[in-house]
């Protein structure tokens, strides 16, 4: 019983941090976390089938890096040559 609990919590935390790296939306990792905690039999396999497909900065068809930068403030994709975000005017220089 306790082993199952720790396995589910471990998978939930892994999925939360993995989803945080793969999306620019703040709510998505939290939704995956809650779903895994309440419906682990469904959401753990579902995450590994569809949840890991969206990677920031990678073209889905070729899996090559895009020449874009994600704004850390608003999440908008901008050209790599841009100095400021086109949506919120946040500085994109590192």
**Beta-strand content estimate:** 5-15%
Largest sheet report: 2 strands, antiparallel
CA distance, first residue to last residue: 48 Å
- Helix content estimate: 40-55%
Question: Which whole number gives the mean pLDDT?
Answer: 83
Enumerate the strands of the largest sheet in spatial order, edge to edge or round the barrel: 1-2
- Reading the helices and strands in chain order gives HHHEE
Total number of domains? 2
- Count of β-strands: 2
The gross shape turns out to be: elongated
Low-confidence segments, given as residue ranges, are none
> Using only CA atoms, what is the Rg?
16 Å
Give a description of the structure.
The protein is mainly alpha-helical and 94 residues long. The protein has two domains: 1-54; 56-94, no CATH class. It is 48% helix and 6% strand. It is built from three helices and two strands. It has helices spanning 2-22, 27-38, 40-51; strands at residues 68-70, 77-79. Strands 1-2 form a two-stranded antiparallel ribbon. The longest helix has 21 residues, at 2-22. The protein starts with a helix and ends in a 15-residue tail after the last strand. The mean pLDDT is 83.
In short:
The protein has 94 residues and is mainly alpha-helical. The protein has helices at residues 2-22, 27-38, 40-51, and strands at residues 68-70, 77-79.
Write the topology of this structure.
Elements: H1 2-22, H2 27-38, H3 40-51, E1 68-70, E2 77-79
Antiparallel strand pairs: 1-2
Helix pairs in contact: 1-2, 1-3, 2-3
């Amino acid at each position: 019983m306790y082993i199952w609990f720790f396995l589910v919590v471990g998978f939930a935390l892994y999925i939360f941090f993995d989803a945080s790296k793969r999306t620019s939306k703040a709510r998505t990792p939290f939704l995956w976390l809650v779903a895994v905690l309440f419906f682990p039999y469904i959401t753990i396999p579902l995450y590994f089938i569809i949840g890991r497909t969206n990677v920031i900065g990678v073209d889905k068809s070729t899996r090559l890096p895009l020449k874009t930068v994600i704004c850390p403030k608003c999440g908008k994709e901008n050209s790599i040559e841009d100095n400021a975000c086109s949506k919120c005017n946040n500085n994109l220089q590192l």
